[in-house]
Input
Amino acid sequence: MSLEKPIPPHSPQSLSVVILAAGLGTRMKSQLPKVLHPLAGKPLLNHVLDRADELHAMQRLVVIGHQAELLQSHLQHDQVETVLQQPQLGTGHALTLALKHIPHECHTVLVVYGDVPLLQLNTLQTLVNLCDGQHLSLLTQIVDDPQGYGRILRDANNRVIGIREHKDASASELTIKEINTGIMALPRSQLEGWLTALTTNNAQGEYYLTDVVELAQQSGYTIQTCHPEYAWEALGVNSQQQLAELERHYQAHVALTLQKEGVAISDPHRFDVRGSLQCGRDVYIDVGCIFEGTVILQDGVRVGPYCVLKDCSIAKNSQVLAFSHIDGAAIGANNRIGPYARLRPGTHTEECVHIGNFVETKKTTLGHSSKANHLAYLGDSTVGARVNIGAGTITCNYDGVNKHQTVIEDDVFIGSDSQLVAPVTIAQGSTIGAGSTIVTSTPPGELTLSRSKQVSIPRWRRPNPKKN
Ligand code: UD1
Ligand code: CA
Output
């Protein structure tokens, strides 16, 4: 599912994205660094890093401070640079430290926050494009409640002349509804000069990055502004409550995008994609489903309520019924899976397969029209076509040390409550009598059973209860 139509970047090789993430996330009340809390199954910081990738940034630089070791180890496998900011003397100080690592070939520095995960690609691209030789650009927003935000100061000609932090603002400045989201694009060549001119002469005793705006304006730069397309894009996460709110904004946006493509989602408020979900035509998704990793639903697929689907593909017109859990499986066309089925990695089904309630499969292939409708475990198995697996069938694939294969050929009927002790092959057309424990391979076409003959004991009586 592509949520964004990528716009070719303005200057692909010359963008450095600086991600500020040195602050403390006290209000999360958690051991985990704030920017590592997941949204849609992915850490906040990785949402931001992925956006920077989509912008084709030549450099991604993360400013870290609090819990730096945890963040560093989280980032160690990524193509990301980190800059340590200790102590944290403000956003201006953070960028000053970052600047030392930004190559001179870089034209534009985009400043984003590690705890603002929902900025859309188009918004950032527009902001970056507005920043050129004579302009810097700010992402601003008109809000009803500007409490806490820096206010955008404009002159009589509506030109931006500065940003006033809430704590430094006069009564009249506090009435300004246009706020600084904190996201800005700046020309690399001018930054050194502007940043060295910053002072801590303000209410918080910090180096404010926002003071760069007034300096830029004074040195002849024009400040461009743009707004995010969606009101929720620039929201940040400071608390568990805000994290949950952003999660719902994200999911609502994903649901809406899919609805526009024709997917029927019975309740977008009870719908979660933690990865990517690709849908064909006439797909229906009932309430409470979670899609993780990469999930593909082909035309006509119906997913019942409360299913969890992870890294799987479901071919045309198959149904997944309520409370099923599918992970790492490829489901063929016209299957009926569930309710209450559990398909684990390495499950493959051909067309018209039925897997019913309380059936678990793992590393197992089922051929055309085969059925395992109730209570079974099929592990490390190859099941042919038109096979019926009776209720209670178990492939005993593990001897306590190694795993072994079970092969069940075409047209086999396995009676209920049978154990197939692997390695074993049930040859084509075999019938296994109910309640059998099969330890050696069977001949084709015959009935095989392994259980003692049924006896009835005449005049047998149940014991009487003991008397005290
Ligand atoms: C900042 C802006 C304000 C804007 C608001 C939007 C400044 C001075 N103010 O204020 O105009 O309306 O964001 O949310 O920039 N950080 C560091 N190192 C530091 C300080 C902060 O890395 O020394 C990081 C934080 O982790 C955070 C981001 O920068 O991700 C913003 O810091 P925060 O303290 O939230 O800024 P505000 O005071 O809210
Ligand atoms: Ca903030």
About this structure: The first helix runs from residue 44 to 54. The chain has two domains: 12-226, 240-448. The helical segments are 44-54, 68-75, 91-99, 121-130, 171-174, 188-196, 212-218, 240-260.
